[in-house]
Every structure is written in C-alpha cells, then in structure tokens.
Give the backbone structure.
Amino acid sequence: MERTFLMIKPDGVQRNLVGEVIRRFEAKGFTLVGLKLIKVSRTLAEQHYDIHKERPFFGSLVDFITSSPVVAMVWEGDGVVASARKIIGATNPLTSEPGTIRGDYGVSIGRNLIHGSDATETAQREISLWFTEDELVSWEPNL
Ligand code: CMP
C-alpha cells in the first residue's frame, strides 16, 4: 500500500493546527501508520532538505525546522502521495487554493505549516529517514 511522509512544521504546531491537519487526513479516509512529536536535529533537517542545500533559503529553513517541535507522520492509502499534496496545497500559501491547508491557514512561503512528500520515491526516502520500521504500524479497521 502507498505511503507518504508528512511533517507539521513548527508554525503548524505553535498555531495549534495539529488536530486540524490530522482531522483532514482522517476525514479523507487515509490511515495513520506513524506519528511522533520531535525536536529535529540539525543533521536530520539538513538530510531532509538536502535537495535545497544550494538555495539561498537553506540555512534559514534548517534554522526554522530545528527551532521548536514538529509532528512527523506517515499516512497510508491508494494514491496518498498525490492526494496529500492536493490537500496541503501549493508551496506558497499566497497562491494555494482556499480549501487546502496552506490556502486556509498560511500567508508565508517560509511558514507554510506542513511538508508533504512530492513523489513516491521521495516518500520512501523521507519515511526511512524519519522513522524506524518499529515505529510504523500496519493496521486495518475491524469494527
Ligand atoms: P516544503 O514543502 O517543506 O519544501 C521546501 C521548503 O522550503 C518549502 O516547503 C518552503 O517552506 C521553503 N521555501 C521554499 N521557497 C522558499 C523561499 N523562497 N524562502 C523561504 N523558504 C522557502
């Protein structure tokens, strides 16, 4: 089953949007298989954002992600990678569609509340970077 990695960034946690983000993914019908609140190390932040290391905002991005706790999650479901990107909205919240998380709650590209993997290969890389196998739980509803 397809999985994606999501991270509620420090701004999302500080604005008390953790419940709202989880609610949207639960309501859509995806399955939560991994969840933790962590203070990110500089090493992990730099590895996670390695693709942006030459960009002028890389240093400030790593500073921000390591500045206070984030909520890291893995969600599972058919087509979850692309669907999560739609639920999250475009990178710049000023151009994200209303109805998306960033479109509804964000105003700044550097404070865009949440990260979601951009492709299935990226999701696999990010999940293994942030979670051990033991921290992921495969389950199905049985009520
Ligand atoms: P994210 O989806 O986590 O992936 C990379 C992040 O870099 C992105 O969200 C933004 O938060 C951040 N980012 C992208 N462009 C800029 C920019 N011009 N200035 C500051 N941060 C940026």
Notes: The first helix runs from residue 10 to 14. The longest strand covers residues 31-38.
